[in-house]
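#dry-run=false #mode=assembly
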Amino acid sequence: MEEKTVNPGNPDLGAPSLPLAPAHAIRMTGDAHDGIAMLSHLFALAAGSRGYHLYSVPEYPAEIRAHANTLAGVHTSSLAFAPYQEPIDDRTSFLLAMNPAGLKLHESCLEKDGILLANSDSFGAEELACAGYLENPLAGKNQLFHRTISVPMAQLTNHAINLTRAGEKGALLSYREVDRCRNLFALGMLLWYYSIPIDPVLRWLKQKFSVNPSILDASQKAFKAGFIYSETANVFPQVPAYHPLESLSKKGRICRMISGNDASLLALKHVALKTNRPVLLASTSRPPSHEICSLAAKNTGDGFSFILADDEHAAASIAIGVSYGGGLGCTAVSGVGFPHQSEVVSLASAAELPLLLLEYQRAGISTGLPQRVAQSDLGMALMGRNGEAPLVVLAPDSPSDCFALTLLAAKVAMRFLAPVCILHDLLNSRASESWLIPEPESLPDFEFPHFASDSSSGPYECDDHLARPWITPGTPGKEHRLGGNERKLNSPQVSFLPQDHLAMNRHRAARMQRIAEFLGPLPVSGDNGAEILVLGWGGTKNVLEAACAMAKKSGISIAFAHLRFLNPLPKNMEMILNSYPKVIVAELNSGRLFALLKEKFEFNGISFTRQDGLNFVISQVEQAIIQFARRES
Amino acid sequence: MITHNQPTDFASEQEVRWCPGCGDYAILAQVKKMLSDMPLLREEQVFLSGIGCASRMPNYLSTYGFRGLHGGAVSAAMGLKLAQPNLTVWIVLGDGEGFGAATQHLLHACRRNVDVKVLFINNEIRGLSRGQESATTRPGTLTATCPEGSSDNPWHPCALALAAGATFVARSLDVDVDHLGTILQRASAHKGFAFVEILQNCKVYNDLVFDNLATQHDRPEHLIYLEHGKPMVYGAQNRQGIKFENASVALVQPNHAASTAPSIHDEASESSFAAQMLATLENPDFPECIGVFRAVTRICHHESFYRGANTPNPETPKLDLEGPDSFPVE
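#status=ok
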């Protein structure tokens, strides 16, 4: 079979490329008051300005206020930067440990020849005991890594800032305020090591602390001190020779680090502006969906609004009320809150109303592990309703894809008057990456013929998309009744007759096929006539893509596809599966997608899964690909 | 503009299918009459409901209607009101649903003063599930699931709505059509959350449960018609009354002495405490009250919701994709 028929949408994708220069993976870890999130954010800002592509994943402790310096209170940010989009692996070449507990949790991830940069001021007897170290791991016979750089960051920060000693009479800052600048000292060291200009950080600090000159002054001093100290004290063993590539053609363009949650919100606000219809997010606060709630509450206006509902059923019901009123009702949900909303999804299917579910997957059953990654709700999204109530299910493949995919989801929901679920995972919702800001004119429009309230069609007569006109209350002369009861096709008449029920089931299924056509085919990248296809979905895309590139180096002829549309499946799904002798379906659950594909299609494939609350590791996927490719079938 | 000023203008194409003798027929007739009497456009009236006998009502009205989930109508109405604040939104709930699956949503809507009108049709039984007890079924009632008689304490719907902060709470009777019509009109005119309990007879599963109130001859002896600013009296020639005394209610026989003077009903009282006491009075120890327990004005939910950060700002509709942390690639 010719490649172009397998890959009709993307003829130029080519093989997954190996980066010309390897990616750098940095892990920053410390206690709650070490400011790890800010450190990571500012590093990304500075490196992004230099043209690097960045991808970062934060990890928070489940405890809100863990005891200081305990393992339970460790905050971590994993960050990869490279000329190309790069995944976070579980190995890192640079570990910044602001306290012993952070080191304890992440020591196994640092490569043997990796650099450990530690704030030695936090490695006292008490802190070491809290982390479970009997001896100091930074020096002496128990030193863990031979490239350990031990720096008394708190003392050096204090010296750099204090012309007048903190806390004493006449001092402008407290001990605590000075102490909290030590993350900026560490940032200065990191930027020097990676040859990244410091100006973007200085600009950011100036903007952020413009109302507090004392803090601004202290921050700048601490930051510059870290940068200068690295040079004058000659602390690093070597300077890495990684530089961004000019060929990225980003120069002069505006970038930002964007999390999946930020991207989703921007998309919802765009829909409100473009449609001039209210877009309302109604949600409860169940981790990790609570993160987008807090963001949404700060970003209302221009037709977008947010309400914190009192339970998941209420949230989804408020959303469907908004949609009935002519807006786009959205709800964000996680874990066991999802089944609470199942009946509202069924109602949206029956009444033919748009409904957008932003579903945030987490590991575990019941309360589970809300801060761990898993693709745990595919089964619920695909099957979790009574009867034959269809739900469109989409999944973004990266943080920035949350923008494009949320726009697409809203478009499907409003065009087809159907419920749509976006399955997020922590790898694409909480994580951030560099995003080349799109030109406004490239964003999609939202004008559909069935928006017109003066349509001559009755409220139940379907158009060629099998969607009924979206006639909303307040429209004179079009009064009608909607609801969850079965009815006659193209009619308001409630009907319990078998033939009407059958006709409606077929109608809903046929509409899903129209949606599949609307969404388009699945693109495949890779070798013509490849011997093996790797298929994934959700936030694992960059890891799987990198694993494919590594396996290709071993001489495996390989193709890669990543599903963004899980229901309805792309129309070329069967053709793609049949085009390769071997298929690996990789997902962070027990193999739900694999089981679904096996049920629907015949193909020679295996399921590669991970279910411990962590992301795939590139090398493990690579090994699985190589083993399967070499296995006699 | 098409005017709809006859009750028949508000009848839908659907055939009405309640049991013969069901009190819902009278309620439906009064709703249609109220709609035709009010200066309201038909397209701006929306009736929402869930599942239950009473919940069929939106299907029988020619307004906009949405018959959704068991327990979901209150929150859906809240969303609808946020999407289109100009609509007049009605919710029809039976006691099985209203104080079953919808309880939490209902109580939160009370506290938020969502501008919707709830018709709480109370026959103290779940009719659609063939005579099972609800949260308002009185002890001793024989039901399909309590063959030896219900043993749980019931809720007093109006008292609960008052305690939850509802700004308009009233009670009426299906058979007292004039009174019901008046109450419906007042609910319609109220700005904010209106809760109207309508005592309704279920001919099949709980017949005559309100017989003491429904029989016209006995009604004066068992009922107080609450009227704002007037003494709370009842019985032949108003020879009996009630009085608030020591945080409770006492029966009095007015005889011109100050100590026997009945209390004056104040539906506009800031506190709902007295109204809650009135809403819990029951035969045979006390007369039961119908009329408006409480009618006060508060800011509505959609008004406070759109007053803050959610305010639409159509003058500068610009999407800021860059945000505060964007940077040029240098």
